[in-house]
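Anyone up for a design puzzle?
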């Protein structure tokens, strides 16, 4: 494998000058795919060329059926060219390559179109590099008898890694660190080793944010090591043209179904809306808004509800990561059909953002109510190429073991890392094989300890109650309060006559008198207005009463028409009550001792879910003794004095 990689990368190094190192991948990746497909189709090439003229006028579906049957693969090429006769005609090489590419079936031709391979070929021809590159690739033996699908996949993955490392762009948009993928994959399969190692096993894996296919490749490699005979189907979707091309090419090279990799925005164009999968993996974009998808997503949420993907709710438009989480859950098989397990990398905000009744909280509560959260693993910071923020792996499943039902496992892996000798973008740390082994062991062991916490689903649920205090006001017609009345828009809309009458009425009230009963004050106010020929309609009376009033704990309670106390909005507060606790008992203990006149407005109670990960692993570190701090300060001061003495001398 390494020989092939080195040979191909030597071809890339020969491009230095006309091509930048960041552009090498645009040459060697599509050429590697082209050479592999050329070798794969070689044995049936003659049969395809014989069949092609006989179906030239047939309907398209019949053509495809006959030609794929002749090729023995899900793709074919009807061009008479192959690498051998391409390099035999150096003068017409550029035109012949175009003819050769056009001969592929549409499901493979699409790969080269998304690579924008035509542009690359034009540049190679312009810089007199096309023949040299084509001739060197013609020398490589990529026939399946020589290089298996697994070996070819490893070659291509290594080339992708090399291309990413030499790219001037940050790899984070399309590339998840290999060791993070390895951890996710091992978590995904850790509890299923026995079932997956049996003969005749058939499984499917899906990545809705496939990028260049790294997660699918690592999962494929891991499972085939465990069980070489496993029948594994890999599915993926991505919206970036080049990432899609690389991923699809990688799957073709591995012998996977070429149609299982789709191009498009997963949130608005679910390419596999009729499929469910055994396993799922995803590293969606962190902190990226979904404004462009909002109309579609909100429409699906309102029209389909829980029959669609976003029934529990939608997160804040500033971060769409939780939409991918819900999308993954929608791809789970029913428990009676074997169920599914999914792993997704998210930043910290999906754990706690949004209050009770908000989209994020509703999503968390729905996941917990349905017992879908199996584990959450905190990763070290500085793990990804384009961000240094805290990240977490969520493991979701609808087929929990009996002892895990109703439970969520939190694993603290934030301090399990190895420092990189040289940072790559924002990436400063990596997971060593020992770190991965430790985390997977903690997950599989499912025991409560310092780095692993086992909690009930209910421990993350709560109710937000609204605590009201009675409205108590006093009224006084001071110049300042009266002026405030006339600054209100509703008062400013009065006619000059009515405004003058209102001011005259207020002037009748003694500035020294303080009323502490609303009914008594309003009677005096209405009498004063009547004396000025002004009828105080209910809205006007309410406005004047509100603006002249000030909060006063010694005043009488303001009651409604039924005699119930009115709440004071300025004193309104909320409390989060743990799910298992009685609200009345909580209020008696936490509220009434400090506000005996308070009550709960139960009509405003909201239910929510929050996962305060760091709180469960908090360890109190006592401060150093004052004597020790004083000694250190004295020592520093002594050093400063000594330096000053030296300067003065």
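Challenge accepted. My sequence:
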């Amino acid at each position: 494998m390494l020989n092939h990689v080195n040979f191909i990368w030597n071809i890339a190094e020969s491009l230095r000058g006309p091509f930048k190192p960041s552009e090498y991948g645009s040459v060697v990746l599509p050429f590697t795919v082209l050479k592999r497909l050329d070798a794969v189709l070689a044995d049936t090439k003659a049969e395809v060329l014989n069949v092609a003229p006989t179906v030239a006028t047939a309907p398209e579906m019949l053509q495809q059926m006959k030609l794929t049957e002749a090729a023995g693969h899900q793709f074919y090429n009807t061009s008479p060219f192959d690498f051998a006769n391409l390099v035999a005609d150096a003068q017409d090489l550029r035109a012949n390559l175009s003819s050769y590419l056009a001969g592929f079936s549409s499901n493979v031709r699409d790969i080269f179109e998304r690579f924008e391979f035509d542009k690359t070929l034009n540049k190679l021809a312009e810089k007199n590099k096309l023949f040299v590159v084509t001739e060197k690739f013609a020398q490589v033996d990529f026939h399946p008898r020589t290089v298996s699908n697994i070996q070819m996949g490893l070659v291509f993955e290594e080339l992708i890694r090399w291309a990413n490392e030499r790219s001037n762009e940050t790899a984070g948009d399309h590339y998840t660190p290999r060791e993070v993928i390895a951890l996710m994959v091992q978590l995904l399969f850790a509890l299923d080793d026995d079932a997956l190692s049996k003969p005749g096993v058939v499984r499917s894996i899906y990545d809705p944010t496939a990028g260049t296919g790294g997660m699918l490749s690592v999962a494929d490699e891991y499972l085939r090591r465990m069980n070489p005979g496993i029948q594994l189907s890999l599915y993926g979707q991505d919206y970036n043209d080049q990432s899609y091309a690389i991923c699809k090419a990688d799957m073709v090279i591995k012998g996977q179904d070429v149609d299982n990799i789709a191009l498009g925005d997963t949130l608005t164009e679910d390419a596999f809306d009729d499929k469910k999968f055994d396993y799922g993996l995803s590293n969606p974009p962190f902190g990226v808004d979904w404004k462009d998808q909002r109309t579609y997503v909100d429409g699906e949420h309102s029209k389909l509800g829980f029959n669609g993907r976003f029934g529990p709710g939608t997160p804040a438009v500033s971060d769409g990561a939780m939409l991918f989480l819900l999308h993954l859950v929608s791809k789970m098989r029913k428990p009676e059909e074997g169920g599914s397990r999914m792993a997704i990398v998210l930043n910290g905000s999906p754990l706690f953002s949004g209050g009770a009744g908000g989209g994020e909280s509703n999503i968390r509560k729905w996941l917990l109510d349905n017992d879908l959260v199996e584990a959450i693993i905190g990763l070290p910071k500085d793990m990804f190429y384009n961000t240094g923020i805290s990240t977490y792996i969520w493991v979701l499943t609808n087929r929990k073991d009996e002892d895990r039902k109703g439970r969520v496992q939190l694993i603290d892996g934030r301090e399990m890392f190895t420092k990189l000798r040289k940072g790559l973008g924002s990436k400063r740390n990596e997971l060593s094989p020992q770190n991965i082994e430790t985390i997977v062991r903690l997950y599989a062991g499912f025991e409560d300890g310092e780095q692993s916490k086992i909690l009930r689903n209910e421990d993350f649920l709560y109710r937000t109650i609204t605590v009201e205090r009675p409205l108590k006001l006093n009224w006084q017609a001071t110049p300042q309060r009266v002026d405030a009345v006339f600054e209100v828009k509703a008062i400013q809309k009065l006619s000059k006559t009515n405004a003058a009458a209102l001011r005259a009425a207020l002037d009748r009230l003694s500035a020294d008198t303080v009323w502490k009963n609303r009914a008594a004050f309003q009677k005096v106010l209405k009498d004063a207005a009547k004396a000025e020929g002004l009828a105080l309609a209910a809205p006007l009376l309410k406005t004047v009463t509100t603006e002249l009033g000030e909060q006063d704990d010694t005043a009488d309670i303001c009651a409604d028409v039924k005699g119930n106390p009115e709440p004071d909005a300025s004193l309104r507060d909320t409390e989060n009550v743990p799910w298992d606790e009685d609200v009345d008992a909580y209020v008696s203990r936490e509220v009434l001792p400090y506000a005996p006149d308070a009550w709960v407005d139960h009509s405003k109670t909201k239910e929510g879910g929050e996962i305060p990960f760091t709180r469960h692993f908090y360890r109190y570190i006592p401060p150093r003794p004052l004597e020790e701090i004083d000694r250190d300060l004295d020592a520093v001061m002594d050093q400063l004095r000594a330096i000053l003495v030296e300067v003065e001398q």
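A detail worth pointing out: Confidence is low (pLDDT under 50) at residues 168-174.
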